[in-house]
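Key idea: predict the complex, not the pieces.
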Amino acid sequence: MSCCTTGFSQEAAVTTSDGLKAGLLAELELGARHLEDGTVNYLVAVPAMHCGNCILIIEQGLNGMAGVVKARANLSLRQVSITLQSAEVPLAPIASKLDELGYKPQAMGDAARQTKDETLRGLLRAVAVAGFAAANVMLLSIPVWTGADGATETLFHYISALIAVPAVAFAGRPFFISALGALKRRRVNMDVPISLGVLLATGMSLYESFIGGGQAYFDAAVSLLFFLLIGRVLDHMMRSRARQAASRLAQLASKGGMVVSENGEIHYLPLDGIRPGMVLRVAAGERFPVDGTIIDGASDVDRALVTGESVPVAIGPDMGVEAGTLNLTGPVDLRATRAAQDSFLAEITQMMAAAENGRSAYMQVSDRMAKAYAPMVHLLAFSTLAGWLIYTHGDFHRALTAAVSVLIITCPCALGLAVPVAHVVSAGRLFANGILMKDGSALERLAAITRAAFDKTGTLTTGEPSVSSTTIPPGEESSLARALAMRSVHPAAKALAAALRGHAIAQVSDLHEVPGFGVEATAQGRKLRLGRASWVAELAGENSPAPRQTNVAFALQGGPMRFATLSESLREGAAELVQSLRAARIESLIMSGDGAPQVEAVARACGIAEAHAGLKPGNKLALLQAAAARGEKVLMVGDGLNDAPALAAAYVSIAPSSASDVGRMAADFVFTRDDLSTVAFAHQVAVKTGRIVKENFALAIIYNVFAVPLAMSGHLNPLIAAVAMSSSSIIVVANSLRLQLLQSEAPSFHEAQTPLIMAHAA
Amino acid sequence: MNGLVFLIPVALGLGGLGLAAFLWSLASGQYDDLDGAANRILHDDD
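Result:
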């Protein structure tokens, strides 16, 4: 169980300034719940919690502390509930203790704060009630079918009614509410025929019981509800699991900033409290919370998530920065130029809202079926009624019985299960392979794509550069360069450190980072520098010109200049993904905000023919809308803020888990692995699911073809209805389980958790 | 017929007992952290 001890050290280099901690405490205080007995309850997100041992470490560590009444860890939700004696007990030592134990505490996102899933509980209660009723009514029905005499039959019908009527009223509510909602909006969903069937079956059975007739369908009504509710619970659990995982990722984002007031004090303000003109201090390794102008300090910024540019940019006083870009090397003060809600981010959000209208027009296949199926069923029932009235010269009771039994037998038990069961099984398959799905309709849309559009930086490439060639000779110079490179969080330095992994780390002193330029140190009385070529050249003995495409230089005082060339490393499986999509007759294209040379290099490496470079968010959106107008169904795979409108506008969209918050929100799928071949797997699963769903519908309709003539001719009885309904449901579920057999070539989930460093070393 | 008079209430009562037990366990939060419960059993002092 060594998983608990890692994870912390990597993050420590990037964050944990005192400023961040104050901000965290302020956010935690906001979520406090004051209980009646004077104690205070806090919920703290702990994303690093992985295993049973973590529970033990956290609970033992916190429960021994002064002022802590109780600390209880929840492994499923990755959060700790901490109860303190009173509001006076300070929270700071507890947060520090968690940090010390190796579990970095984080504030809960708003969505995750609702810990108890009330919908799921309601559904589980309904399943329990329906299950109880179905079992007991079925038990009472068997003696009736096998020929109980008149008095016993009537008694059993009464008891059945006593159980079934309250059960239907309670367990049927989710369907009735959904059906009413759809009817109010003048639409028909699958819940309309379900509700109608259940209510009519119950109503007719009640009437038959009281006049002493033999046709009671209580068992059909309650077992139908039971089966359908199970499907609904599975569906809900799948979606809330995906949502939780997504919100856990969202917790990593900064939701406020450290504001420097006029008298020099620093305090934390949430994002919507920051006004234009305020001065903010942003530490190295943090993202800029708002758009602003640098007033003090120098640093490098990584703009990859915002603009798609892969190379970090040096910034200094009077230069502008966008919200969401990452401050890499030095702390800076900036003056906010726009409030958060007016920032670049907000423009993107507006663009997304406009783009998303297109997608809501998509109708799920089950709703399309319902739209075609419901009128047909109602027409059949009506013609049965009319036919029997004419045939029997006005025997209304017989005609109505036949018509209602048509509605009962066509009540889409198997139809209602056809889609959710297939979707749940495939969502499980996707989840096990590191793909989170927002809802079932996304799966249907993914199966229908005709083109695939990719962002470059962070999507086709890892977003982190790697060293492709270097002139640093092995031996002492490599050891020194490695010592310097390890000091910086600049992507170029990290790449160089990884490339020089095989060399020893030399002893250096006076090591410090010069923001915007590089790292400087002293070794054996000689200065040495690693960084920007012009800055390193000041120190070097000779001023040899940097070769083209050089990204980082290194020199000892008076020594020769050494260079390293960086290139973007392709994500694993990128070329394979393009090939496997081509095999499915789906052509790929690149849409990037980066410059043409970088984009073309990646396009060549992946074998993509069509590449667009230098695109702004609006351009990407326009390209997709033009494609949609031509009737193309485009899959968009992207990660950045600049991709968000395109992700929202595309027919279906996928984002890596490293994507910006907004990007992840806009996407239908999020994949948590580094390997792009999971996207190909998702497409395969989607296509296969589409086929299974169609088969399920076909099976359900075949059963109707046999059963409906029986019902129309008045020969239906409760035994036939019960057998036909159960068997068709079981066949549909069994058919859906075939999706489990689909093999993926990707490695198992745990193998994919190996640190990124391993991948770079290889 | 006489047997039915008490057997059916007994059957329903037992079923109802199971239902009540499930609803109680649901309300008392026993399904809130299934992964955690699976791991806690391995700890001696919990």
